[in-house]
Amino acid sequence: MRMKAILLDLFSSFKKAKPWKKVLLVFLLLMNLFFFTTAVIKVNYEVLTPGSINSIVNTNAEANDYWVLKIDTDNSPGNVNTVGVYHHKKISYFQYLISKLSDKIDLAPFDPKTDTTKEEDIIRGDLQKDYSIDYALIVAYEAAKEIDPNIHIEYSFQGLRVLAVNRDSRSGLKPGDLITKIDGRSFEKADEFRVILEEFSGDDVIKLEILRNGETLELDSQMMETEDGYKLGIQIHEKMTIDPNKTKPKFERNNKLQSRGPSGGAMMALAIYNALTDKDITKGKVIIGTGEIALDGTVGAIGGVPQKIATAALYGADIFFIGEDNYEEALAAYQEMKALFKPGFRLIKVKEFKDIISELEALP
Description:
Largest sheet: 6 strands, mixed
CATH class of the largest domain: Alpha Beta
CATH architecture of the largest domain: 2-Layer Sandwich
CATH topology of the largest domain: Ribosomal Protein S5, domain 2
Order of helices and strands: HHEEEEHEHEEHEEEEEEHEEEHEHEH
Strand order of the largest sheet: 5-1-4-14-17-18
Distance between the termini: 80 Å
Number of domains: 2
Number of helices: 9
Structural class: alpha+beta
Shape: globular
Radius of gyration: 26 Å
Helix content: 25-40%
């Protein structure tokens, strides 16, 4: 009854109000309804926006609030940072409208029937981050060993980590599984696995030995038909395991990470390398960069390049390293946002990890 009385009183006041007040009230109500509706209604689009940078390595000499690895040395890791972007799927209509206003935001259709979900992206991103840390450690320790023979790292191939599984896959595999044998045969790299896989097609049963949550299982897998022929319908990556007891200097991994994906590999390798060697090759520069790192030191292609260039500009980079496969895209974004960069910003194209070292060693 009390609520009814309040509403009747409001209605009575509205009827007695001057016309301009009625118009203003109706306008405000409509605006509130618009913002509420656009914030609640979801649309099938995904956005990629500029993000943030993260420090990487702590040592006995320098400690940051956030870190990926701690290296047991008294050297400086330098001001080396990875750069990330913000990725949102099935956004609100309000987010969609805001995204249309900026060319620094990538807006793309999202198909919930075929595209990976947010949860699947998180799982894959965590698995990618895991192997990128391992690869960065291996590349950095091996490179530093050329300067100091006391530096040592031991690692071995464990199998193929399943990063993602197609919804139509008949493999029986799950993200996180580790494939160790195919058809009863061992393999030492992904290419060997693929060669054996080519022996099968159609409805052939493929016996896969896997590790899942520490348990050894054998799956009867089958291929799925795609436009490119018969495939298992999985995304895989070689899994290396580092022996911490035989690695010097010792290192510690942070299990509470803020970022996902493999694109920080090259910068992680640089920060680790700088922490391992006595000479600080960063020379006080603010270094940001992006690129996946391979075991042979190759800097691989990544996504979100324009957004990462914009992020580096916001955080005052002195140097931005980018792999050669992404260089043209990065250069276009760099030229467009040149007015935002502080004097001295350099965009440097690299092919391999050793190119990063050479570029920094050549600095005055």
